[in-house]
Each structure stands twice: as C-alpha cells, then as structure tokens.
Amino acid sequence: MTSITSTARRWFGAVRGSRWTRRSLVGAMIALVSVAGAVIGTMLFAHANVAVGPFRAEMSISPSVFGGTEVDLPPLGSLHLDSHDGPLHLKVNLAALDQSRTEALIDDPTAISRAGENAVDDVRDGVIRLGVRTLGIAVLSAIVLSALIFRNVRRVAASGLTALVVTGGSLGLAAATLRPDSIAEPRYEGLLVNAPAVVGDARRIADNYGRYSEQLQQIVSNVSRLYTTVSSLPVYEPEANTTRILHVSDLHLSPQAFGLIRTVVQTFEIDAVIDTGDLVDWGSTAETGYASSIPSVGVPYIWVRGNHDSASIQTAVARQRNAVVLDNKITTVDGLTIAGIGDPEFTPDKKETPAANPDDPAQSPLLRAGGQLAETIRTSGKPVDIALVHDPAMAPPLSGVVPLVLAGHKHQREVSLLPAPAPAPSASPTPAPSAAGDEPPVATRLMVEGSTGGAGLRGLEKEEPTPLSLSVLYFDENRQLKAYDDIQLGGTGQSNVEMQRNVVGAEPEETPSPSGSPTPQSEPSR
After folding, report:
1. I need a labelling partner for 405 at 20 to 30 A (CA). Which of 20, 88, 138, 295 fits?
2. Terminal Cα distance for the chain, rounded
3. pTM higher than 0.70, yes or no?
C-alpha cells in the first residue's frame, strides 16, 4: 500500500513538474485573464452615442449567453429582438431627444421622411462603430489587466492576442447570424396598455405619417393664400386696435405643430398664443425638450396643463422666456385678463371615464378644479375676460363668471353656450328686490379646440389622420370677442386648408336653461 502511494506521488510530481503542464497552466491563466479583461472593459466602456432621427440613442454591448437586441423606449417599455446569436447582447436606449435635431424636424416638415429613410443607415453605422470600439476596448483592457498580473511582455502580448480572437470571433458570430427580419416579431415588455402602440400600430403610423408629411409643406403654405382671400370678405373687418389671440391645444408632441403655429402667428399678426394643454404624450423627462420650441413663436405663450402633461413638463414650459403658466392664476396679456388652471388628473394612459358621478363636485376632481378657478376669479376683484381649462368638463362652475372659456381635450372643435348658473336658494319665501346696479350673470361661451398637432402619432392610427385645428380669436378695444376664424388642415392625401370666419352675434344664439341641460362631459382621455 505504501509503495502504491509513493508511486502515485512520484507520478503526479513528474506531471506537475513537466514543461507541458506548466505551459498549459500558464496558457489557461492567460486565457482567463484575457477573457476577464475583455468582459470588464466591454461592460464598462463599450457604449456609444448615435443620432437616430430626433433621438440621441445610446448603444452598448454586454456579454450574454443568448445574444439578441433590446430597445428601451421610456416610458413605454422595451422591445426585445431575436436579432442574432452569440455571446454579445446589443442594447439601444432612446431616452433622450436631441433638441437641435428635433427643432430641425419641426422647422422642416419634410425632414421627418428623410429622417425615417436615414434611420436604418444611422443604426447600421452606429453598430459598426460600436463594434470597432468594443474590439479595441476589449484588447486594451486585457493587455492592462495582464500587465498588472503577469508583468511579462510575452504573456501580455498573448493576452492581447487572445482578447482580439475571442472578441473578434464573438462579433463575427453575431454578424454571421444576423436576422434583419426579427424586427417584424418583437417581444414587448412594459405596460400592457402601451403594447399595441409600440408593436402593432407603429407600422401603420409610420406608413401614414410618410404619406401625410409629403403634403404638409404645401398645406402650411396655403394658410397665407387662404387668409388673403377670407380677410377681404366684408362680413367682418378687424380694426387696427383689434387684439388677435391664437387658440391651440393638444399638440401631443407633433413635429409639425410649431411650424404651423409660427406660420399662423406671422400671417394673422397674432398678439399672443393660448395653449389649453396636452403638449406631449406621456409626460416623461425625455419629452421636456419639446417645450424648447415655444420661444420660436415670438409672442407670449399662455399655457395650462393637460392630463398628458406632468409636473416636469409644466416646469419645462415655465422655463421658456415667453411662456406664462397658469395654474389657478390670473395674468394680463395685451390688455386681456386671462385666468387658468391645470388639469387635476395626470392620466396619459386612461382609456375610459371613471365611474364617479361627473356632475357631482364632491366626486369629480374636474368640477372641483373648475370651481377653484371660479372662486379665484371672484375674489380677484377684477373682471376676467378668458378662463382656460383643458377638459371642458371643468367649465360648468365658470358659467356666469367669465364671458369666454377655452378648452381642448376632445380633439374635436365645438362651440356652445354654457347653461346659465342656477339661482342661489333664498331663505325668504318671496324674492328680495335686486340692489341698484346689480346685473344678471354674463352668458358664458365655451370654445373647445380640436388637436393642433393632429393628436400626434396617435392621430395616425386610423386610415385618415386627425385634422390639425386651431382658431384665431378677435377682441375689440372693450375686450369683447367679436369674431373667430376656425382653421383646419386636411388629412392624408389632401393639401387643402379650410377656414371659416364666424362673427359673434351675426346669428341668434340660444342660452341653455339652468335645469334639464347636460353639462359638458369628459370624454375618454386621449
């Protein structure tokens, strides 16, 4: 037994002391250090910023068993593509909007189609640059780590060569197994409500937007010609001291909205723009850059928050030099006193109206907000000419308090008179005589704007996109609304612009009675 044990020890000692064994151990250590250095370097430094359309896309490569590609779309979720095999995983983050590129798209509507055509090339070039960067980083990291451990030139060189072969082979395997058709079958992770918009309807939106953007430049140019024709009509001729207000709403991150607004501001000599909310789609931090286009309109921009606008969006709007954010506040612009309050609900994903009774102020936050603004106006001690809300369901408490309420939210143009406020109950069985100088409550007109952004990308989910709508309001020296122009830009395949001038008082209007008339109801949030 002792002889067997001693024989085994001599054999293992001989093997361990052999040159082949020592070289194998050194080779294994070099390979281990090379792979470790390449992995560490790739995870820390293998990323690059690539411009894709209006986005600053951050691409990164990380070790993975299954390969594939992940595209992050905050705050919607992420798409996972079975794009390739191999030990490398590609991640693309589209969280940041590039301000300069976004403004370029807004200024030139046809640029959106060029951006779409170049997007594939941008991504391909970005991936190639990232691959070359990853290869260099992996080799350099392996050399540095090997130098710290071995302190031997030959072993350091071997580590660099090993990292080159391993990383280059991994990149080659990914390229050889590339599956471009994987984009047609993405796997979505995120809120269930967002899945159709990200995966399914995105193809239809892209197709419709391509057709629609082709007509946009001609549509915008037609505004000037249309104004020249309509302004010559004898129905209403604005005086020199007329104040012109442009009412817009529900831009929903549309790349063409501000270009259209600037055109109308210049053509109609607008004094101020009123925006009744839903500037963006999701209220995410990535969308705050959209507000940077507000100064380009060149006139005061009065804004109230919509149900798609978060607190960060409101802060971004407030930072613009010509913007006035009204959240239960009153301001004066060009002689007009304007009050406004933001939508109390932040519900960018809401699909249906809550079950609470919308006519009960105790249950409806919209009515409570409208009542809060009405109380602010009453206690201000001065007459207010215009009240701004986002959802028309907030308007009933303002009846009799202001002559005009502007709203949006419905993506459909509507003009009506609010029901007169019900008289306050009196404790006396006989009504008391009116005090001298008392006047009946003013009739309140509610003007609901359509979507100036054509409901953004959501407006392209149907066969025909939502028309772009905006209105020009004319006020005389007494701050009274005398007329308004409703402007609507056509949908897909159309290059027409329609404008209808409406003179206030030209036709008799019936004021709804205080009882038995429905109040404006909030439609499902858009």
Report:
1. 295
2. 87
3. no
